[in-house]
UniProtKB/TrEMBL annotation:
Domain EAL: 346-604
Pfam family, one: EAL
Domain GGDEF: 202-337
SUPFAM superfamilies in the record: EAL domain-like (SSF141868), Nucleotide cyclase (SSF55073), PYP-like sensor domain (PAS domain) (SSF55785)
Domain PAS: 45-116
Cross-referenced NCBIfam families: GGDEF, sensory_box
Organism superkingdom: Bacteria
Species name: Amycolatopsis lurida NRRL 2430
Official protein name in the record: Diguanylate cyclase
InterPro entries tied to this protein: Biofilm_reg_signaling, EAL_dom, EAL_sf, GGDEF_dom, Nucleotide_cyclase, PAS, PAS-like_dom_sf, PAS_4
């Protein structure tokens, strides 16, 4: 009677809520054990267990010592879509849906009967008679038998299908891109690690693809159209690569995709697939009446599976993609280890520019410009930068300015160049008076388009108490046409201040930029082929071209000079056809601060 009262109180005291399946299982086992052990109330305890077993929402199968089901309750029949009686005589492992489910149940039963180890809750598939495989949580334990020391298996089953499917959906969402349905970056990273974990002679290929100018589509036609284009891109890439060399496609970011291949292939075979994909992407995707074709840049890496880890492969693909974009976009680039080794050295150089500037490793280097009518007179002195690198020696500006552009150091270098060159100009004026030459500073593109260029120049002029006329600022076609800066406005203000503006030209198109944009330019400098053509001889067509440029410059009231002049003969030819001043190795390739001081003094006298 005590046993009955205790279990009745336990089952009744649920505080108005349904009991979790784990508690129900423990209660059922408790009743069953009490039913066996309670004496002399054995029969009433058995009746209580039978009633609870029949009404339990948890599916229960009682088995004999061999694991053959002798009884199943109604809940298990409902769960598996069959009559409970039809389960009798079947071994517990036979309820498993697939071979591995059967094996797991058989192993759990062996562990229970041999070692007395109950199964912790385990999720697997059982067969529903009509709906097929069903995810369930099972617990396999034992109950004491009616003879001392004997036990019988009992299987308890609860429905986990909805929970499992929800978990699967959440897992899918975690590793898939919601827009395209492709694997996302996380899933792709896992796939890459798996692909590189093996051994053998197989190859692995990683392709990074980036849509060129996708911002134009998004901004011009709207984000909704952009999304549909991305879905179309995903389908095209999937159609090309899926099914080829275990190929998988993933979306890594906004308009960035990746392809992973593994198998027995060569770089040309991978390149052929990439070219096919790029051709497919050009074919228009029709969205809302718009036929939208896209181009893509691709970076390709092909290497043995055992050659390097995921980080190396990802880095190589990214570098190859950057090179493809720098080369003009809409094309592919195969990763080149030798080129990469050279680039690493360059990038290491670029990374330490800031420290080199702070440590005083930069200095001014000069190139004098002389009047061709009287080479003993200086027209100006061009100031540039030289880097005295502790390991690589003397580096000219064309070796580090492109790196400064990448690392954001162009403005600090330009500010230092302006400050030092104007300080030198102030020193020359104090020493030589009117005979002191103007200083000409060539502006790198990033400095030329800098919105604060006027402020930078004026600060340095004021600091050194110099008139703006003492400074010549030289730029080129690229900077003038750069849509990202304010060159035209800056040059107008600088001209109003009195600074002399210089444009480097190589032909008529460059020269016509001056009237077309109303540039307040006072000097033009001939550069490149038009100067080189007169280095050895006077070809009629070359002379005619030069004379046309000189005549047009005179019409625009411009003073015309030349750079890169190598000999006195070449200088004389240029003078004869109207060029007023020149610089180059016929005077001096370059000069240090002390050397240019001596040169100015010599010319001043």
């Amino acid at each position: 009677m005590d046993v009955a009262r205790r279990w009745a109180e336990t089952l009744a005291d649920t505080k108005g809520v349904s009991l979790p399946k784990e508690q129900l299982e423990q209660l059922l086992l408790g009743v069953a054990k009490d039913a066996v052990l309670a004496e002399p109330d054995h029969q009433p305890a058995v009746l209580r267990f039978s009633k609870l077993y029949s009404a339990s929402p948890v599916g229960i199968a009682l088995a004999d010592a061999n694991g053959v089901i002798v009884e199943a309750n109604a809940a298990l029949g409902r769960l598996l879509g069959c009559r409970p009686a039809s389960l009798r005589g079947r071994e517990i492992p036979e309820l498993g849906s697939a071979e591995h489910d059967v094996a797991r149940l058989r192993n759990a039963l062996a562990q229970l009967m041999t070692h007395g180890q109950p199964t912790q809750e385990e999720r697997l598939l059982l067969d529903h008679s009509e709906e097929g495989p069903l995810w369930v949580d099972v617990t396999l334990t034992d109950l004491p038998g009616d003879r001392p020391g004997s036990t019988y298996p009992v299987l308890m089953v609860s429905d986990a299908n909805e929970i499992h499917l929800l978990q699967e959906r959440l897992l899918h969402q975690n590793v898939h891109d919601p827009l395209t349905g492709l694997p996302n970056g996380t899933a792709f990273g896992n796939a890459l690690e798996t692909a590189l974990a093996g051994s053998g002679s197989e190859q692995v290929a990683l392709v990074y693809l980036d849509i060129d100018g996708f911002k134009v589509i998004n901004d011009g036609l709207g984000a909704g159209v952009g999304d549909q284009v991305l879905r179309g891109v995903a389908k095209k890439l999937t159609s090309v690569f899926t099914g080829r060399h275990n190929g998988s496609v993933a979306r890594l970011s906004g308009d960035g995709f990746a392809v992973l291949l593994r198998g027995d292939f060569t770089p040309p075979e991978v390149i052929s697939l990439v070219e096919q994909a790029l051709e497919e992407l050009v074919e228009p995707i029709y969205v809302g009446g718009h036929g939208i074709g896209v181009s893509a840049s691709a970076g390709i890496v092909v290497r043995p599976v055992t050659d390097g880890g995921p980080e190396d492969l990802l880095r190589a693909a990214e570098i190859a993609l950057h090179r493809a974009k720098e080369a003009g976009k809409a094309q592919w680039m195969l990763f080149d280890p030798e080129l990469d080794a050279r680039d690493r050295g360059r990038y290491q150089l670029g990374a330490v520019i800031a420290g080199a500037l702070e440590n005083g490793e930069f200095s001014l280097i000069y190139q004098p410009t002389v009047k061709l009518a009287n080479p003993e007179q200086l027209a100006a002195v061009n100031a540039g930068l030289r880097w005295s690198h502790p390991d690589k020696g003397e580096l000219d500006s064309d070796e580090f300015y492109p790196l400064a552009q990448i690392t954001g150091m162009t403005i600090p270098l330009g500010r230092w160049l302006l400050a030092e060159s104007l300080a030198a100009t102030a020193r020359w004026r104090n020493r030589f008076g009117e005979a002191a030459p103007d200083v000409c500073v060539r502006l790198p593109n990033r400095l030329a388009i800098e919105p604060d260029l006027v402020l930078l120049v004026k600060e340095q002029l004021d600091r050194h108490n110099l008139p703006a006329q003492a400074l010549r600022l030289c730029t080129d076609r690229e900077s003038i046409l750069d849509g990202g800066g304010e060159v035209l406005d800056s040059f107008a203000v600088l001209a109003d201040l009195g600074a002399q503006l210089v444009l480097t030209i190589s032909g008529s198109d460059d020269l016509e930029l001056i009237p077309r944009h109303g540039l307040p330019v006072r000097h033009v400098i001939l550069s490149g082929a038009v100067v080189d053509a007169l280095a050895e001889r006077e070809d009629e067509a070359d002379v005619r071209h030069l004379c046309q440029l000189v005549a047009r410059a005179k019409e625009l009231k411009l003073r015309i000079g030349a750079e890169g002049v190598r000999s006195h003969e070449q200088a004389e030819r240029l003078r004869r056809y109207g060029v007023l001043a020149a610089r180059g190795s016929f005077v001096a390739d370059s000069a240090t601060g002390d050397e240019v001081d001596e040169l100015i003094e010599r010319h001043a006298h």
